[in-house]
Amino acid sequence: MLIRAFVPAHITAFFVPVFNENPLLAGSIGAGINLEKGTNIFVTTENGPERHIHIAFNGEPVERNNAIISYSVAEKMIPKDFSGEIEVWQYFDFPNGYGFGNSAAGALGTALALAFNFKEKTFLQASQVAHKYEVLYKGGLGDVIAQFYGGIELRIKPGAPGIGVVDNIFFEGYKVLTLPLGRISTKEVLDSDVIKLIEEEGKRSLEEVLKYPRVEVLMKAARAFSERTGLLTGELLEIAIELDKDLRLPSSMVMLGKSLFALLREDEIEKIKATLTDLTIERYHICEVYTQRPSVERWMGGSL
Amino acid sequence: MLIRAFVPAHITAFFVPVFNENPLLAGSIGAGINLEKGTNIFVTTENGPERHIHIAFNGEPVERNNAIISYSVAEKMIPKDFSGEIEVWQYFDFPNGYGFGNSAAGALGTALALAFNFKEKTFLQASQVAHKYEVLYKGGLGDVIAQFYGGIELRIKPGAPGIGVVDNIFFEGYKVLTLPLGRISTKEVLDSDVIKLIEEEGKRSLEEVLKYPRVEVLMKAARAFSERTGLLTGELLEIAIELDKDLRLPSSMVMLGKSLFALLREDEIEKIKATLTDLTIERYHICEVYTQRPSVERWMGGSL
Which residue range or ranges hold the GHMP kinase N-terminal domain (chains A, B) (predicted)? Predict the structure, then answer.
């Protein structure tokens, strides 16, 4: 039996990290956008004499140490009395480490697919397992709950799904442009002096958007956050300024990756494509906002 | 500009009412099912010299007293400085008062459509307005938050969306059969001696489903709840027993309406249709579970 789960990629626009010894209470507040591109997770289970878990990223098997979050989730989600082979295949539309929430998506999709398979845990219970290991192994703080609820989201209370609270804002007529340009170590940023500025600016940005819950306000707050914290600088800032010339709303930086994003109207697409060609940026995505829950289903489609 | 919102019908399987002076903290715990049939809400706004709100049910204008929940929601959701005509058209797939959450759906759809139109409130803010007036005018206690999250749901913490917590269980291969047979006054039941039994049995049922979160357990718990509370009796119970002969899972009673529901597998549909014909029951629905959020969009379709 093959189960497929889809979890959207998640871009964080601004955030305040919230640490706690209890990983279910740790998380972040802030805002972000879920995308129609993301991570597809396929899970197969086969009874057998021994219990083995195999995880593959983009078709390549990965060792436990390099997929510790998903391995931990799988171990927790598979019933203790199950014996046999479990394969978890994760396919990512965005590169790992660029700020698109891949580790959270893999963890959440693995948890949901296994919960669907065994029918022993609820949606919230499964997603709390994903959140817990994301936090413990520092994959991220707020991606799991953001991806769980979808849409253009405001995380107004930190924590795992069922504990934290996610709100959504209404929007229409926008697609999302994303430019994955490189990696940033989340850990290095969170351990640095920038953290105090991030907390101040993150809170201020969230308050602004809650006061006027519109995407226009969100994008302005996101850009202000990325510049005031000093995270958006150098070449990345130069590209952002070029993009802005074609767009009604400011572009901003993906937290935390060397990546940019912007909201686009239909009539801005051709112009921005030409600009990206001028900038010799070949790798970019234009996609819709994903406004639903992650999907989980028995997969009747073709082979992997 | 025409906005359309769709909010699923919601069947409560079992529940524990939770009263509180603060309507945002009042609600219910329990379980239920959201359906692909429900309420479509169309909203038009037109600027003008005077502020007027018009609400219609199934194409017929209704007076303020007969649609007090939706009128109150609309008044709260329309910005104070707006002047002009607002029309709210609500179309119900199920009859009012039969236990399908129509008043909550109308209130929630009105709130979401107006929030989409004016872009001054978030999803949670809008749905809290709907929940508040549902509770204040005794339309219901848990329908708004159940409809807000969709699926086969467990309400594990009472309250409005953003305060209460809704979980979901995984299922596959089931459709929902519903038989709307008549009205029951929710108020009369909640004011009667049955309330203590409802509290005991509702808590017990929820614990059982949280322990083994499967639809099979849910339907058995629902049926036990409906019989042990004495709510499912007489002719309604006789029909339920007839339905059970064709089905793997027990049928149960919709809380609170003189209505029945059951989960159906594909291979049970023909048999149950024949049985319903034998019972001379002509009004029934077979539909899918609605697993998403309510939809809200600018409506480009034909005329109303």
Answer: 85-151
Report the CATH fold assignment for B2-167: Ribosomal Protein S5; domain 2 (3.30.230)
Considering only CA atoms, which of B14, B13, B2 is closest in space to residue B198?
Answer: B14
The residue length of chain A stands at: 304
pLDDT of residue A267: 97
Could you say which of B124, B167, B214 has the minimum Cβ distance to residue A167? B124
Q: Which residues of A touch B122 (CB under 8 A)?
A: 154, 167-170, 210, 213
Spell out, as residue ranges, where chain B has pLDDT lower than 70: 301-304
- Residue A231: name the closest of A191, A258, A200, A270 by CA: A258
Q: How far apart are CA A139 and CA A90, in angstroms?
A: 16
Matching residue, tokens 């129509």: B102
Nearest to A122 among B122, B168, B297 (CB): B168
The CATH number fitting domain B171-287, selected from 3.30.70.890, 3.40.190.10, 3.40.50.300, 3.90.1150.10 = 3.30.70.890
Show residues of chain A in contact with B292, CB under 8 Å: 292-293
In this prediction, residue A187 carries a pLDDT of 76
Peptide bond into B256 cis (omega under 30): yes
Choose among B109, B116, B46, B58: nearest CA to B83: B46
For the four alpha carbons of A74, A76, A79 and A84, in that order, the dihedral sign comes to positive
pLDDT value at position B302? 58
Domain ranges in chain A?
1-304
pLDDT in tens, A183-219: 988 777 878 889 999 999 999 999 999 999 999 999 9
pLDDT digits (tens, 9 = 90+) for A24-59: 999 999 999 999 999 999 999 999 999 999 999 999
> b or e along A239-259 (b: 16 or more beta carbons within 10 Å of the residue's beta carbon)?
bbebbeebbebbbbbbbbbbb
pLDDT digits (tens, 9 = 90+) for A57-99: 999 999 999 999 999 999 999 999 999 999 999 999 999 999 9
Nearest chain A residue to B117 by CA: give it: A170
How big is chain B, counted in residues?
A: 304
What ipTM is given for this predicted complex?
0.95
Contact B122 A298 (CB under 8 A): no
Which residues are CB-contacts of B132 (< 8 A; sequence separation ≥ 6)?
Answer: B23, B24, B160
Within this chain, domains B2-167 and B171-287 share the same CATH topology = no
Report d(CA B38, CA B34) in Å as an integer: 9
> How distant is the Cα of B201 from the closest Cα of chain A, in angstroms?
21
- B115–A170 C-beta distance less than 8 A: yes
CB B125 within 8 A of CB B115: yes
Percentage of the residues of chain B whose pLDDT score is greater than 70: 99
Q: Determine the average pLDDT of the residues in A146-154.
A: 98
Nearest to B167 among A124, A150, A154 (CB): A124
d(CA B81, CA A85): 63
Of A63, A162, A76, A60, nearest in space to A111 by CA? A76
- Closest by Cα among A24, A26, A20, A10 to A148: A10
Closest C-alpha to B104, from B146, B154, B64: B146
- CA dihedral (A208, A9, A256, A232) in degrees, to 10, reads -60
